[in-house]
From TrEMBL:
Organism lineage: Eukaryota, Viridiplantae, Streptophyta, Embryophyta, Tracheophyta
UniProt GO MF annotations: oxidoreductase activity
Ranges where the NADP-dependent oxidoreductase domain occurs: 13-59, 81-186
Pfam families according to UniProt: Aldo_ket_red
Source species: Glycine soja
PANTHER family per the UniProt record, alphabetical: ALDO/KETO REDUCTASE
The protein's name: NAD(P)H-dependent 6'-deoxychalcone synthase isoform A
InterPro entries for the chain: AKR (IPR020471), Aldo/ket_reductase_CS (IPR018170), NAD(P)_OxRdtase_dom_sf (IPR036812), NADP_OxRdtase_dom (IPR023210)
Gene3D superfamilies attached to this UniProt entry: NADP-dependent oxidoreductase domain
Length: 209
């Protein structure tokens, strides 16, 4: 539904987070989380939060909703979910979250084949294919294994039984040091490139790479 900037209500992160913390203390939820938080937004939140965020979800809805959207979760750990894959590695964000004890959950770990982004820069990446061939694995398994070795959790969506099985077969092998060095050189490009007049991309992600 179209809307104007004038129709938007200013978002008070501190007050909302305090209310979320109260819900947590009352046992209404096991954990609380945020959505689309950059390092800058996390730093601001952690400056007054007494309970760390559980989830930071970045998805297509980030184009519609404010970058400070918060919600309940029934998870029992403290992850933040963001777009992350070999083509958008978010090294600074990973390092920041690790330092703060926040678990990262990667959204879109295998790219977005068949979506409005048109091509899959993850599974169709020649380097990914080469590494997969060297290990006798699939490109998808290489991508998931890389995330696993970064200490990142991930959500590889599939309704295909064989692919679900394939996604689980990443724990009995490892990427080499050379593999990691090559993956570190992959050109970085965010798939979520478009904001709105009300929520421009710089406001959503604070220019982070």
């Amino acid at each position: 539904m179209p809307y104007s900037e004038e129709s938007l209500v200013p978002f008070d992160v501190k007050s909302v987070w305090a209310a979320m913390e109260e819900c947590h203390k009352l046992g209404l939820t096991k954990s609380i989380g945020v959505s689309n938080f950059s390092c800058k937004k996390l730093e601001n939140l952690l400056s007054f939060a007494t309970i760390p965020p559980s989830v930071n979800q970045v998805s297509p809805s980030s184009i519609i909703y404010p970058a400070h959207f918060v919600y309940f979760t029934h998870l029992i750990f403290h992850p933040k979910q963001v777009e992350m894959n070999i083509a958008w590695q978010q090294k600074n964000l990973r390092a920041y979250c690790k330092a703060k004890g926040i678990i990262v959950t990667a959204y879109s770990p295998l790219g977005a084949k068949g979506s409005k982004w048109d091509i899959n820069q993850i599974l169709d990446n020649e380097l990914t294919k080469q590494i997969a061939q060297a290990h006798g694995k699939t490109a998808a398994q290489v991508c998931l294994r890389w995330l696993f070795e970064q200490g990142v959790t991930f959500i590889p969506k599939s309704y295909n039984k064989e692919r679900l099985k394939e996604n689980l077969e990443i724990f009995d092998w490892s990427l080499t040091k050379d593999d990691h060095e090559k993956i570190n050189q992959v050109k970085q490009e965010r798939m979520f490139k478009y904001g709105t007049a009300a929520f421009p991309l710089p406001d959503l992600f604070d220019g982070e790479t």
